[in-house]
Amino acid sequence: MSNKVEKLLEIEYPLIQGGMVWCSGWRLASAVSNAGGLGLIGSASMYPDVLKEHIQKCKRATNKPFGVNIPLLYADIEKHINIILEEKVKVVFTSAGNPKTWTTLLKQNGVKVVHVIANTKFALKAIEAGVDAIVAEGFEAGGHNGREETTTMCLIPQVKEICKVPLIAAGGIATGRTMLAAMALGADGVQIGTRFVASEESSAHINFKNAVVAAREGDTQLTLKQLVPVRLMKNKFYNDLFVAEQGGASVDELQKLLGRARAKKGMFEGDMDEGELEIGQTSALVKAIKPAAEIIKEIMNEYEQAKAELCS
User: DSSP 3-state assignment of 114?
Assistant: First the structure.
């Protein structure tokens, strides 16, 4: 296999690991890159000095390409950008903001820029901003999500019609068969998050990893639509949010309930009752905690097997 995403990112497989808050540090990113995919350091949970440390450790752990994921609404984003340029990171995935703000500067410094969108409107804006590729993320994905609730199966063909740059599918992809489905819809590659949460190298707390493995169909739900829509695993905190929203809670009341560091409390510190547990619908497909390299091998083997079955 050789396609646009592999050529752009200089990787063996068109498979990118999601830059997941509190779950994707240098260990996971380097393991994915060493196994032939593109590993991403999730910078949203990191202070600038912590990001710098993770980048430097990732460089020592792999000689393969890796990248950094940056939400554009991050408070210290200018410091993050400066560190990325200083450390000569070659790939940046941006999300949650206007790609015009930083794309030109990054590209002028030799950085390949990929932007995450959830609808065709923002896909066009990203293309106008000059990004090198787009991630189209469907409603099934974990974490922050699109208000339109467009599924991956509907989103990818719509974005494909207007997209001239490489297109990466995300949301609802955790196996070789779902990867093949995304490629059949028009994607040039896939981004996978949830499956890598339950990897040995993930920085997620073992309680969260075990909860992902134990998850079943219907155990996640999109919530907080009045603030920023986010898909969460159902737990006490989710139930508190649900009751508040059903009771007509205001934005201020929801923000107060959300508080600070809820995601850290759940995903990183392992509080399964009061923590915010961001995870995708594909958690129901995750059966075991495994090394990232084994996960990639399984996905690619199943991809090739499924493709062969269709062709026969």
Answer: strand
